[in-house]
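Hi there, hope your week has been kind to you so far. Would you mind checking whether the tokens look sensible for this chain? I owe you a coffee for this, so here goes:
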Amino acid sequence: MAIKAHMETLNERHQRLEEAITDETKHPAQDELRIVELKRQKLRIKDQLEELRSQHMKPN
């Protein structure tokens, strides 16, 4: 059950990062370094989610 809650939290963070990236790209003077950092964070979360999914799906 803890894994599911952790995955939900990561999914929420992933979505918030996506929204932050979208908001940043709408600005006329967008901060490219901030966008790159947000994308890195989003990718790290995606990797964490994939790792949790693969561990969760392994038979015991």
Remarks:
- The chain is about 85% helix and 0% strand.
- The radius of gyration is 14 Å.
- Residues 32-57 form the longest helix (26 residues).
- The helical segments are 2-26, 32-57.
